[in-house]
Specification:
It is a single chain. The protein is an alpha+beta fold and 255 residues long. The protein has two domains: 3-77, 3-Layer(aba) Sandwich (Glutaredoxin); 88-254, Glutathione S-transferase Yfyf (Class Pi), Chain A, domain 2 (Up-down Bundle). Helix content is 55%, strand content 7%. It is built from 13 helices and four strands. It has a four-stranded mixed β-sheet, with helices on one face. Helix 1 (12-23) links the parallel strand 1 and strand 2. Helix 1 (12-23) crosses helix 9, helix 5 (105-122) crosses helix 9 (188-202) and helix 8 (154-175) packs across helix 10 (213-223). The protein is globular. The termini are far apart. Bound molecules: glutathione (GSH). Glutathione binds next to helix 1 and helix 3. Glutathione binds at residues 11-13, 35, 40, 53-55, 66-68, 137, 140.
Length: 255
């Protein structure tokens, strides 16, 4: 079996795929795309992933796209070690978490990430270049153009932070009985949201879960796993590239 992962070090969606491959003990080659140079929008990459986003996993020449699909594909292909419960009802609960994470925290974390970091890459562009770059994104055109070259508004930042808080609340309720991971054993549900938490920690948002003992226990256990340490090689964190300028000023939104 040959696996090639097209991805970007700092991309949270890519981190989900890397953690899953490493948990499964699979060897894989990594092709790193520079998302600010627009590698993901080049025709040769869009032939693999017409959505123009990372990650894509090419398994023996056949592309599989979308991070959660890649995780479930790997789980079916290589069932051991298990990253999903056995009983259909428990698998359904795992997927409920995954869909919630895809709908709520995954889009929410993009707002502070773009404002703090990604925006600076577009400020050197002319208006025409910026609009053309936005137009060329098959999946993220509206989100990108809404950000504009000045970034998301304080209101949008507040909404995004409250969606992240809702996620923390939900998880705390599930972890309240003392379990370490969302379904008891470590699973795709945990991997699905972990990169969002690693990003929150990276951009100064750890105070959001300071008063949540279940989530704190979960985060410390999940982020300390060998697969996660390996997946988060140097360059995976925004602070490693951009320094302290990537901290959210929480008081400004909740002061
Ligand atoms: N649903 C997709 C979303 C992938 C996605 O949004 N990837 C981001 C990085 S985390 C990306 O490639 N962004 C580049 C762009 O927007 O042009 C998945 O989970 O794989």
């Amino acid at each position: 079996m040959e696996f090639v992962l097209y991805n970007a070090p700092q991309s949270t969606c890519s981190q989900k795929a890397r953690i899953t491959l490493l948990e499964k003990g699979l060897d894989y080659g990594e092709k790193k795309l520079d998302l600010f140079r627009g590698d993901q929008l080049k025709p040769e990459y869009k032939a693999i992933n017409p959505n123009g986003v990372v990650p894509s996993l090419v398994h023996d020449g056949e592309p599989v796209i979308d991070s959660s699909v890649i995780m479930e594909y790997l789980e079916e292909l290589v069932p051991s070690p298990r990253l999903a419960p056995e009983a259909p009802i428990d698998r359904a609960h795992m997927r409920e978490w995954m869909r919630f994470f895809e709908e709520v925290p995954t889009p929410a974390i993009r707002v502070p990430s773009y404002n703090l970091v990604f925006l600076r890459h577009f400020q050197g562009m002319t208006e025409e270049e910026f609009l053309a770059f936005g137009e060329s994104k098959p999946l993220r055109k509206d989100f990108f153009l809404k950000m504009g070259r000045t970034g998301y508004s304080d209101d949008e930042m507040r909404q995004s932070l409250s969606r992240l808080k809702l996620t923390i609340d939900r998880m705390e309720t599930a972890l309240d009985d003392g379990r370490t991971y969302l379904l008891g054993d470590f699973s795709l549900a945990d991997i699905c949201v972990l990169p969002t938490f690693l990003r929150m920690q990276d951009i100064g948002l750890r105070p959001l879960w300071a008063d949540f003992p279940g989530v704190t226990r979960w985060y410390d256990a999940a982020s300390g796993r060998p697969s996660v340490r390996e997946a988060m090689y140097h360059g995976s964190l925004l602070s490693e590239k951009y320094g302290e300028s990537v901290d959210v000023e929480l008081d400004r939104y909740f002061g």
